[in-house]
C-alpha cells in the first residue's frame, strides 16, 4: 500500500493541526513587536511529515564539494544538494551549483511555507551533517543572486544541534537549539547584519538534515 493510501501524505502537507495554527498566529504577531531578526516555530512539522522528508532524502544526490581555504583545497564538512526552479543556479561558498529538479516532499514543503508564511522560495539547499563532527562555519546567506526583501526559511530534521547567530557590528551572540521539525525563519534583512553558524558537537552521533528555502533572482547566472 502506498503512503497516499494510508492518508499520511494527503493531509500531511496541506493542513496544520489546531495547536500549530495557534503557534503560527502568535509567531506572526510577535515579529513586528520583537527586535529579533528571526522567528522560531518549534515543532512546525509533525512526525509523519518529518519521516516523509527523511525517507525521501535517502535518494538525494548529495555531494561534498571542495573549497579553497587559505590556498588549499578541502572537502566541505557536510554534504549538500541544491534543488530549484529552472534558471536558479547558485554560487554558494564560491562554488557554482546547478539547479536539480525538486523532489516531491521538498516541493510540498515549499508549497506549505508559501501558503502559511507567504514565503516565495524557488530553491532549497539541503545540508546533511552525518554527525556532530560535521558543521558549518560563520557566514551570511547574502549572495548577490538572493532576491532583495526575501526571507530564508530553515527546517531541521533528525539530530538536535545548536545554532549560533552573531551580530556583525556589536558581536551580540544568540544561541538556539534546533530540534527535528523546527522552522527558523531568517527575516530580511537579517543577513546584512548577522552571521550564523552550526558548530561541531562531538557528542552528537546521529545525522541531521537542514533545508533552507531561498528566493533567487531567476536567470541571474544565465546558464544554458
Ligand atoms: O544547518 C543549518 O542549520 C544552517 C545551514 C546554513 O546556514 C546554510 O545552508 O546556509
Ligand atoms: Fe546559512
TrEMBL record:
Full protein name: 2OG-Fe(II) oxygenase
Binding locations of substrate: 90-92, 142
Ranges of residues in domain Fe2OG dioxygenase: 120-217
Binding locations of 2-oxoglutarate: 127, 129, 139, 196, 208, 212, 214
Database matches in PROSITE patterns: FE2OG_OXY
MF-aspect GO terms: broad specificity oxidative DNA demethylase activity; cytosine C-5 DNA demethylase activity; ferrous iron binding
An example Gene Ontology biological process: DNA alkylation repair
PANTHER family: ALPHA-KETOGLUTARATE-DEPENDENT DIOXYGENASE ALKB HOMOLOG 2, DNA OXIDATIVE DEMETHYLASE ALKBH2
InterPro entries (alphabetical): AlkB-like, AlkB-like_sf, ALKBH2, Oxoglu/Fe-dep_dioxygenase_dom
Amino acid at each position: 500500500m502506498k503512503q497516499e493510501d494510508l492518508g499520511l501524505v494527503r493531509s500531511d502537507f496541506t493542513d496544520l493541526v489546531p495547536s500549530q495554527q495557534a503557534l503560527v498566529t502568535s509567531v506572526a504577531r510577535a515579529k513586528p513587536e520583537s527586535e529579533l531578526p528571526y522567528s522560531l516555530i518549534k515543532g512546525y512539522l509533525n512526525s509523519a511529515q518529518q519521516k516523509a522528508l527523511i525517507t525521501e532524502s535517502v535518494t538525494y544526490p548529495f555531494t561534498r564539494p571542495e573549497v579553497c581555504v587559505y590556498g588549499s583545497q578541502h572537502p566541505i564538512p557536510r554534504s549538500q544538494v541544491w534543488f530549484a526552479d529552472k534558471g536558479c543556479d547558485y554560487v554558494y561558498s564560491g562554488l557554482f551549483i546547478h539547479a536539480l529538479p525538486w523532489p516531491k516532499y521538498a516541493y510540498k514543503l515549499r508549497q506549505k511555507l508559501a501558503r502559511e508564511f507567504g514565503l516565495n522560495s524557488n530553491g532549497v539547499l539541503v545540508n546533511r551533517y552525518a554527525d556532530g563532527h560535521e558543521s558549518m562555519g560563520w557566514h551570511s546567506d547574502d549572495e548577490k543572486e538572493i532576491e532583495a526583501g526575501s526571507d530564508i526559511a530553515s527546517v531541521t530534521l533528525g539530530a538536535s544541534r545548536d545554532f549560533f547567530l552573531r551580530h556583525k557590528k556589536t558581536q551580540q551572540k544568540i544561541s538556539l537549539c534546533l530540534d527535528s521539525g523546527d522552522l527558523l525563519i531568517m527575516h530580511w534583512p537579517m543577513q546584512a547584519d548577522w552571521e550564523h553558524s552550526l558548530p561541531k558537537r562531538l557528542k552528537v552521533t546521529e545525522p541531521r538534515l537542514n533545508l533552507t528555502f531561498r528566493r533567487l533572482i531567476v536567470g541571474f547566472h544565465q546558464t544554458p
